[in-house]
Specification:
Layout (H helix, E strand, L loop, with lengths): L4 H15 L8 H19 L7 H19 L5 H17 L4 H16 L8 H21 L7 H24 L24 E2 L13 E7 L10 E7 L1 E2 L4 E2 L18 E7 L9 E2 L9 E3 L5 E3 L7 E7 L21 H12 L4 H14 L3 E2 L10 H9 L1 E2 L1 H14 L4 E8 L2 E3 L4 E5 L3 E9 L2 E5 L2 H4 L2 H4 L3 H4 L10 H29 L3 H10 L7 H32 L3 H15 L10 H11 L1 H19 L5 H15 L1
Parallel strand pairs: 11-12
Antiparallel strand pairs: 1-5, 2-6, 2-15, 3-7, 3-13, 4-5, 6-10, 8-9, 13-16, 14-15, 16-17
Helix pairs in contact: 1-2, 1-5, 1-6, 2-4, 3-4, 4-5, 5-6, 6-7, 7-17, 8-11, 9-11, 18-21, 19-20, 20-21
Length: about 650
C-alpha cells in the first residue's frame, strides 16, 4: 500500500489532466475501465481496499487486450494504440504500491500527452499539452519533495519547462527533419471536409453552405482582386449522366507557359487537409507549384493525397487562347429532359450565336421567377426539366447544371466548374479566409478561342458574389432591426474570432508549417547549405555549439541557485556538527542524526539531552511535515552559545 495518500492523489490528478482529451475519443469501455480503475485505486488509499492479486491483474490485462482487438479488428493504428495506452494507465494505478510505481504512472502520462498530436496540432491543443506537461512535471517534482503544499512544486515544474525552451527552439530550427508533416503519422479517418466531391448533383454544394469550417487561407503578394472576382478553381466536370456531373475525360497536362504574364496575381494558399488529390487556385493558375501538376483544364492536382495542411505559392492570370474545344464538351445522354432540349433547340433555330444563347439562359433565370434557395425540394427523374419548368428553386449547383445542359443541347461547348467563391478578409493577419460555406459552382462556355466564365448566380442572387454566402443563407428574420447593444456584442465577438483565427494561422505557418523545405531554405540563407560538405560541417558545428551554450547556461543557473538557496535546516545542523567536532566528537559519515545524538549522550552525558533535542527537531524539519524552524534555530543557538 502506498504510504502517502496525498502524493498519490496529486499523481492521479496529473493523470486525469493528461487523459482528459482522450475521454471522448476512446471507446466507452476504455473510458469506463480507466475511471473505474482510478476510483478503486483511490479506495485502496482512503478506504484500505486490498490490492488485486496478481492472477486477477493478469486476467484484466489479457481481457483489455482482447476487447481492443475485438472492437478494432486486427488492424493496429493510432486509435488502437491510444486505447491500449489508456488501459495501461488504469491497470498500473490499481497495482501501485510504491514510489517507483507512481513514477511509472507519470512516465506513461508523458506518452499519453504526446499522443494528442496524432489527433490535433492546433494552437488550442498545443496550449493544453503544455498545461498537461506542467501538471505531470509538477507531480513528478512533488513526488520527490518533502513540501506539504503543491504550489512550490508547481513553480518548480514551470521553471523546468522554461529552462527547456531554449533547447527545444534550437533543436526545432537546426535539427534535420524528414520531408512531410511535422508529425508524420497520418490516418485515413483524419480527413477534413472537402466542401464538395468529384461529382455534382442537386444538394451537393448547398449542404455545405452553413458550414463555417475553414477550407483554405490566402496571402496575396500584392493587391487582391475584388470580391466578385475571387473564383477559386477546384474541379472541372465534363460529363453528365442525367442526374449528376462528373469527371470522365482522360488526364492531360497543360502546356508550359512561356514566362509570366504582366497582369498576373501572385499569392500563397494554405489548404486544410481533405484527404483528396485536388487543390485550389484563383482563376486561372499558370504554373504548377512543386509537388503538383497543372491539368489542361487549368485545375491543380497534388502528387499525393492532401492529408496534412499544405502551403504553396501560385500565380494566376486571365485565360490564354487554347486549342478549339472538341465534341466531348457538347456530349449529353441520348434521352431525358425533353423540355430543356426543346427550349435550347428553339433558341438555336432563332439564329442566336454563342453570346445570344448565354444571354437567353441568363434572361430566363432573371425574368422567369427563379429563386435562390437552400431548400429546393427533392428532384428525381428529369431533374433539369423539374428545376427549369416546375420548382424554379435551387442553389448554385442547380443553376450551373441547368445552364450547361441548355448550352450543350444547343451545340455550344460548356462545362461545370466547382470550387469556392469569395472569402473573408482578416485585417489582423492580412489574409483571406475561405470557408466551406463559400463552396460554389459556375459555368465555362467556349467562345472566341477561350473558355469564358459565366456565373448564373450573378443574375439570380448577385449579393452572393458581392457580400457572401451569408447574404442568401441567413435564417429568416436575421435581417430585421437589431438593437445597438447586440450589434456591438456581435462586433466584439467577431473581433475575438478573427483574432483567434489570426493566431492559429501564425501557429500553422511558423510552427506546423516549418517543413523540410522551409528548414533547408533557412539554412541556405544562413550559408549552411547541407548539400555541400562545408555547409554540412558548419551546420553540425553550429548545432553542437548551440547545445553546449544552452546546456552550459542551464547548469550554471542550477549550480548558482543551489549555492544561493542552500537549505537553512542543513546549514544549522552543520554548525552543530562542527561544534561537536571541536570538542572531540565528530559525526561519522554513516551516522544518522539520532544515532549521532545517542553516541554523544553515551560519551558526554552532560550534552546528551541537548543533542537529542536538536536531533529530534532536525529530523522533524528535514524528513517530516510539522517541524518548527524557530524552535530548531533557538536550540542550536543556545547550544552553540553555551559551548562557546
Amino acid at each position: 500500500m502506498i504510504h502517502d495518500k496525498r502524493r498519490f492523489s496529486v499523481v492521479l490528478a496529473a493523470l486525469a489532466v493528461a487523459f482528459a482529451p482522450h475521454l471522448m475519443r476512446v471507446p466507452a469501455f476504455v473510458a469506463g475501465f480507466v475511471c473505474a480503475a482510478w476510483g478503486y485505486a483511490l479506495g485502496m488509499q482512503y478506504r484500505g481496499w486490498p490490492v488485486p492479486p496478481r492472477w486477477l491483474r493478469v486476467i484484466l490485462a489479457l481481457g483489455c487486450l482482447g476487447l481492443v482487438f475485438a472492437y478494432y479488428g486486427r488492424s493496429f493504428g493510432r486509435d488502437e494504440g491510444v486505447a491500449l495506452l489508456s488501459l495501461m494507465l488504469g491497470l498500473k494505478a490499481v497495482e501501485s504500491k510504491s514510489v517507483r510505481d507512481m513514477l511509472a504512472l507519470l512516465f506513461l502520462a508523458y506518452f499519453v500527452v504526446v499522443t494528442n498530436v496524432l489527433y490535433s496540432q492546433g494552437l488550442l491543443m498545443s496550449a493544453y499539452m503544455i498545461l498537461s506537461v506542467l501538471a505531470v512535471t509538477a507531480a513528478l517534482v512533488h513526488l520527490h519533495s518533502a513540501r506539504p503544499t503543491l504550489a512550490p512544486d508547481l513553480r518548480g515544474g514551470a521553471v523546468l519547462l522554461v529552462q527547456s525552451l531554449p533547447l527545444a527552439l534550437l533543436l526545432f530550427v537546426f535539427f534535420p527533419r524528414l520531408p512531410g508533416a511535422l508529425w508524420g503519422v497520418q490516418d485515413d479517418r483524419d480527413e477534413g471536409v472537402t466542401g464538395f466531391s468529384d461529382t455534382l448533383e442537386p444538394g451537393s454544394v448547398s449542404s455545405l453552405s452553413l458550414s463555417g469550417e475553414v477550407a483554405f487561407r490566402v496571402d496575396f503578394f500584392g493587391p487582391a482582386p475584388d470580391r466578385d472576382g475571387l473564383y477559386w478553381r477546384g474541379l472541372v466536370l465534363d460529363t453528365f449522366d442525367g442526374s449528376k456531373w462528373f469527371r470522365n475525360l482522360p488526364f492531360e497536362l497543360a502546356e508550359k507557359a512561356d514566362g509570366l504574364p504582366p497582369d498576373r496575381t501572385e499569392y500563397a494558399l494554405t489548404v486544410e487537409p481533405h484527404g483528396k488529390e485536388w487543390l485550389f487556385a484563383l482563376d486561372l493558375p499558370v504554373i504548377a507549384p512543386r509537388g503538383t501538376v497543372l491539368r489542361s483544364d487549368r485545375t491543380l492536382v497534388s502528387l499525393r493525397l492532401v492529408r496534412s495542411r499544405m502551403r504553396y505559392d501560385l500565380v494566376s492570370a486571365p485565360a490564354p487562347a487554347v486549342e478549339p474545344a472538341g465534341p466531348q464538351w457538347t456530349a449529353l445522354p441520348e434521352d431525358g429532359n425533353p423540355q430543356a432540349r426543346e427550349l435550347a433547340l428553339r433558341w438555336r433555330g432563332e439564329g442566336r450565336g454563342t453570346r445570344g444563347l448565354i444571354e437567353a439562359v441568363l434572361a430566363l433565370f432573371r425574368e422567369g421567377g427563379f429563386v435562390y434557395s437552400l431548400q429546393p425540394g427533392a428532384m428525381e427523374g428529369d431533374i433539369i426539366d423539374q428545376f427549369l419548368f416546375a420548382s424554379r428553386r435551387g442553389y448554385c449547383e442547380h443553376y450551373a447544371s441547368a445552364m450547361t445542359f441548355l448550352l450543350r443541347s444547343a451545340g455550344v461547348p460548356a462545362r461545370v466548374v466547382v470550387g469556392y467563391q469569395g472569402g473573408e478578409f482578416n485585417p489582423m493577419g492580412q489574409y483571406l479566409i475561405v470557408r466551406q460555406s463559400d463552396a460554389h459552382a459556375w459555368v465555362e462556355v467556349w467562345e472566341d478561342g477561350r473558355w469564358l466564365r459565366v456565373d448564373p448566380t450573378s443574375v439570380v442572387a448577385p449579393q452572393r458574389l458581392t457580400v457572401g454566402a451569408q447574404a442568401v443563407t441567413a435564417p429568416q428574420g436575421q435581417g430585421e432591426a437589431v438593437p445597438e447593444g447586440l450589434r456591438a456584442l456581435r462586433r466584439v465577438g467577431r473581433f475575438f474570432q478573427l483574432g483567434w483565427d489570426a493566431a492559429n494561422n501564425s501557429w500553422n505557418q511558423w510552427v506546423l508549417g516549418f517543413s523540410h523545405d522551409r528548414q533547408r531554405s533557412l539554412w541556405q540563407r544562413l550559408g549552411l547549405d547541407p548539400s555541400t560538405r562545408a555547409g554540412a560541417g558548419k551546420l553540425a558545428g553550429l548545432l553542437a555549439m548551440g547545445l553546449a551554450v544552452v546546456l552550459g547556461t542551464v547548469f550554471w543557473f542550477m549550480l548558482r541557485a543551489r549555492r544561493v538557496d542552500a537549505d537553512p535546516v542543513a546549514l544549522l545542523y552543520a554548525r552543530f556538527c562542527r561544534v561537536m567536532e571541536r570538542v572531540g566528537l565528530p559525526r561519522r559519515p554513516s551516522e544518522g542524526p539520532l544515532d549521532y545524538a545517542g553516541r554523544i549522550g553515551l560519551e558526554r552525558p552532560d550534552l546528551g539531552s541537548a543533542a537529542l533535542e536538536i536531533a529530534d527537531a532536525y529530523v522533524a524539519l528535514r524528513y517530516g511535515e510539522r517541524g518548527d524552524m524557530d524552535a530548531f534555530n533557538r536550540l542550536v543557538g543556545e547550544f552553540i552559545g553555551r559551548k562557546m
